[in-house]
Model the fold of this input.
Amino acid sequence: MRPASIAIKFRPSTVPNKEGRLYFQLIWKRKVVVITTDYYIFTEEWDSKHSQLCLRDTSLMRKRYLQGISFSLWRDYEDIRHNIIQRQNEEDFNLKDIVEYYQKKKTPCYLKEYIPELISILQSEGKTRTIEGYRTLLATYLHFSQGRDLNLNDLTPKLVKNFET
Done:
């Protein structure tokens, strides 16, 4: 069976001098699905012949922004490709599953949502001591952050180190 194909595409804005959006196009068994991203660039920053970003003739700040997008695109591309390879041989494989996976992964997950979900799983397993630890962790972090929730995608070693001290 042929593998699904993945392409990075650019949809220019219909408004002049406004950024357009990058997206992934997946094709498998003559079905096409699109995964939109939150990556925006100007038309002149896209090389349509090679389907890649152009980093020429821009300011240092813009170059850094585009390099960040380039890295994120590559990471997302590899993640999607890996997910397809893992699941493609499943009998009920569907490209919509990959779209849902990507969208779910891009949805922010916050500590205030995650810990209670984890606690409910642990309750069904009877792990009361572990539950106490997670409740303490949540309360302590919220005190440390002055009540601000934490997007788990923003968790960094530096933040953990500051939290520990």
The radius of gyration is 21 Å. Strands lie at 5-11, 20-28, 31-41, 46-47, 52-53. The mean pLDDT is 88. The CA atoms of residues 2 and 28 lie 8 Å apart.
